[in-house]
Design goal:
The chain is an alpha/beta fold and 251 residues long. The protein has a domain at 1-37 and 87-126 and 176-251: TPP-binding domain (Rossmann fold, 3-Layer(aba) Sandwich), CATH 3.40.50. The protein is 34% helix and 18% strand. It is built from 10 helices and 9 strands. It has helices spanning 3-19, 46-49, 54-57, 60-65, 68-81, 88-98, 113-117, 143-149, 178-187, 237-244, and strands spanning 23-27, 102-107, 122-124, 127-134, 140-142, 164-168, 190-194, 213-217, 229-233. Helix 1 packs across helix 10 (237-244). The two termini are 27 Å apart.
Length: 251
């Protein structure tokens, strides 16, 4: 993409934001890769490199039979937690919310970086590590407690002997907050798709509920064919937002 085309897209996006009153957002792994979190389905993603086997790590039936593969992943994920921080795009969205323009964020990510950036109205479709539960007695374990146990215990167990499962959506479980996400998209006058290729269901359905302008910002192809896609930006989100910031949309 040449400089003139980039400037055109950034300027048009800034116009859409300034005009909008009810912005909604769908985000995926691509918004967090610059924070140091590897994605799952990209060219170097965890599923492609087979660093972790998704059929073992995130399958509910397998987790109940053998939770060790999931907790191997969890140990690596938690080791990242102290070093990662929100990206410029996370911070940009938080500023839009603070200005009263952004109504909410629907995310497929489990890293809670939107909340750490300052966003409050966040719907985590796939859950997060922020809370865990015992599958036997339903006792709750906040992340502040479990993050000290996971690095030293092969499989953390509840006092009752039950298996502890973080509130992450596994294969075989329904996503969280889907109805609220649909309502958010339906009420929006500008819908942003950032850092996701929209291949994972049912999250990929959510943009279709938006009747206003849709803007896609993603490095790579996006599986959306909707009549109201106004801009498609095939770039790293942070690189693009850096250009958009020159137009003072959050100042």
């Amino acid at each position: 993409m040449d400089h003139d085309q980039l400037q055109y897209l950034a300027k048009e996006f800034a116009k859409l934001i300034k005009r909008a009153q009810r912005i909604a957002v769908l985000t995926g792994a691509g918004i967090s890769t610059n924070a140091g979190i590897p994605d799952f389905r990209g060219p170097r993603g965890l599923y492609v490199t087979r660093q972790y086997d998704p059929e073992k790590v995130f399958d509910l039936a397998y987790f109940i039979k053998d939770p060790k593969p999931f907790y191997e992943f969890a140990r690596d994920f938690i080791a990242l937690e102290e070093s990662i921080k929100p990206t410029p795009t996370h911070l940009f969205l938080a500023k839009l919310e603070k200005l009263g323009k952004l109504s909410g964020i629907v995310t497929q990510n489990i890293d809670s970086l939107h909340q750490r950036a300052g966003s409050h109205n966040v719907y985590e479709l796939h859950g997060s590590f922020e809370m865990s539960h015992c599958l036997e007695c339903q006792n709750e374990f906040p992340f502040s407690v479990l993050k000290d146990r996971i690095p030293t215990e092969i499989v953390p167990l509840c006092d009752c002997g039950g298996l502890i499962k973080p509130d992450i959506v596994f294969f075989g479980e329904d996503v969280k907050h889907f109805a609220a996400a649909v309502d958010l998209a339906t009420a929006s006058d500008l819908f942003l798709v950032i850092g996701t290729s929209c291949v994972v269901q049912p999250a990929a359905q959510i943009p279709s509920y938006a009747s206003g302008d849709i803007v896609i910002i993603n490095k790579g192809d996006v599986e959306l064919r909707l009549y109201n896609i106004t801009l498609k930006v095939n770039l790293d989100a942070d690189e693009f937002i850096e250009q958009v910031n020159f137009y003072g949309v959050t100042s």
